[in-house]
Batch of 2 targets.
Target 1
Amino acid sequence: MLGVQIASLTEIPTGVADVVDIVTGIDTALVNGFGRLGDQDAGALAALAAAVSGSPLGPAVADAVGKLGAGSIGPEDLSAVAAGRAALLGAVHDALAERFDSALGRTRSPWDTADQLTPPDDLVLGCRSWLQEVAITGWRGVDHDLVAAADRTVEALWAHPALRRLAVLLDGFTAELRAACPVATLDTLPTRRWADLWTRALLSTWRRTEALPARTVSGRLLILGADIHEHGTAVQAQVHCVLETGDGPARRVRVSVGAAKVDTIVGPAIWELLGDHPQLLRALAEHRSLVVADLPITAGGDLLWHDDRAALDAPADPFTTARVALAEAIGPAVAPLERDPVHLSEPVLLEGYRVKDGAVELDGHRLALDLELLPGCGPLTPAIVTSSTACVGLVRWDAGRWILRPLAVRRTVKGAAVDAHNGDWALGPTDPKAVKALAKSGDSVAVLRERAGRLLRK
């Protein structure tokens, strides 16, 4: 990734800022609620209708905006507004993805999987009704009673596999709202995030994309790096790879494995929670490729991992993989509901730079570094990243700009090249200080499992 490519990448496509402003207006209207529309909120809705007027959504959104302005707030009208908002963010996503692909000369597969109608049963109608009440009330009016009103619906959703994704989404959404109650007392709100969750949930009650994989694949899996997503109650390792199948161009794919956790399990100990995937963990720690057989793959490029269908292969340096195979690998298709700039996360290789003031500099061009969320389960630290000269990372869209999240870096120590990868400690820490700290804190995972087993035996 050369400096001229960084320059092209950091040029924001025309119209993106204007579209984001329209979306921000809708998000602001959700703060006080559609039941109390002011002049500014009405103007935001009118701007939304104008923005999508030339699309198939135009008539539905215009009709919905008219009804909302007259005080008629039904779930169909709110769904039209949510669809218009999602369409605008989808347009921003597509413009940014096209700019990224053009800057780096990449290609990606088109989405050709049809959506399916979600049957309008009582559960789905119940979800729409609760989301309608939330939109009418607005975030500032959310209290414990309103959040609790969704509990029975969420619990019932879990019993239906076809609605499991909606159940997960609403479960997490209500948990966030409950933790923030009473919202009226908060100084600042995660306005964009809550609006995204509300929009996704409401649209998911109307249409869903088939979650089952279309087919299986076999071939050689070359790992680029692992992105660790860690929360108080869950951890996920999302491994970005290049898949060579021998029957066409290589493809960029993802492997995601996760586990539930408690907030006392942190640092290198979280890899123990992923111990059901020993082949994948060894490949990460030892920088090895994998031979996979008959792994299910979704239309969006996600391999559904089965550790017993993978075998360790020869050593494969992620930097070499990125240098040789990444540029020609075809990117995965993007599902309609995933077409949001917040989901843009593209693997890249950057070499020959220097780090200054929290950004990589190359040929006079800068790309900001994401150093705040470096995982504690691996060797990467801000000091190591800022002393590096090469990086395999993810270019992400965040708050109106592109940023680089490191997955692996290469730096020179005493005249020798030294690599550090997020997945280096997948089989346990190799840094003496981390080993000592882990030994001092004890095996928290083993202790918790023993206690859980003791409770189950009673």
Target 2
Amino acid sequence: MNKKIKLNKNMLYSSERGYGFITEPIRDLEKALKIPELNSGFDILYWYMDSEITGIMEDEDGCYAVGVLENGSVTPVNVPLFFKLDIEGEDNYLITLKLKAGDRGVKSLTLFGGRRHLHFHNYMLASKEELTYSFLVNVSDIIPRNYTEVHTDRSVDFAIIGDGVRISEVHIQSVESKTIFLAGDSTVTDQPSGYPYEPGACYCGWGQALSAYLSTEVAISNHAHSGLTTESFRNEGHYDILTRLAKPGDIVLFQFGHNDQKLSHLKAEEGYRNNLIRYIMECREKDVYPVLISPLSRNTWREDGTQYVDLLVEYDKVCKQIGEEYDIPIIDLHERSKEFILKNGIEVSKRYFYPGDYTHSNDFGGFLFAGFVAEEMKKIPELAKFLTSKPEAWIPDESLVLPQKPGNPVYETPPEHTEGYQIPFSGIFAKSPSDVTKELEFLCGFSRE
């Protein structure tokens, strides 16, 4: 496939056209367009459901998105510009965008490709400055969140966020490249985000931020999902997709432990160990390169935040033992993330996790932890060759910005789930202190009373 498209604001997506911009009315036309994993990974915040807040505009420099208020006025809120393009089959695709800044320039430009994979953030453009940017996206079938059957995916999506940025051209071509497959849980998976977008108030697995550290010589295919263990990743069909697609020379990164520890038969020295070894042997049979990643550390502390509690120490230990016994590379994410949390303490570390959560990172944290993975990849020659120059740090403000309901929201509280629609994540769904306490007591066997 090799296709170049000159854009205009009237190019709204339809299956007949095969490409175009996505707005709220377009998304409402088809059930498949409401499943984040088959699209850009964004969903409108619930209080705007049944509203149209994305306007597609055009000037001499290209097309751009504006936030549309109920009274018809526009505002430079963080409303992404969404674009979708149907393709021929499962493959890796090189996307090249022709971008340009408007008269005022662009203070912060962020790009997500595929299932909300971060490619760059906070990029600045001067007035009328042009940028031609290429990135790689993997397209593959997937079992979406809350579904049990495999869904066919045959489209490339991207989302651009940046007040003042214009896009005039999209070029897509299928390419021969290596693929890094990801197997893991919710700390790795492609998490959706609500919009208008706030990076501190959405979930983000480190797997969806890893692309920001990689060159266009390798694509990420993320099959991690929330709640998965070393056992359910296989039993629920995710591993079948991975093994069908992985070619000799491709890489698989395995990170489990957060959910294994909740099941007695998946103890670190028992089911967890045996399952990881089985994955290793099967990868070697297919000439696929396995890499183990020690589980991401939680931001868990006792009482007043003066004593850290490592809930995953046994899984970290066994993961490293397997690496030594079977000569498998280890990416020590557990130690790297724990060092960061210990150095910064409970309160500063909270800025990198979803509000009220001590396990799941937000976009700042996903980017940070992906950086730790990338730094560890430098030690592995088979992976180091795919790294690009280290991107600029993404540091959250001291006070977290949460999405705010408008004065006259369409919905005051989250509506019931409708078929095909997934309630988007936002800071308002943070766990309550009592929920956090109960889960801590369950995981580590102590009471905070």
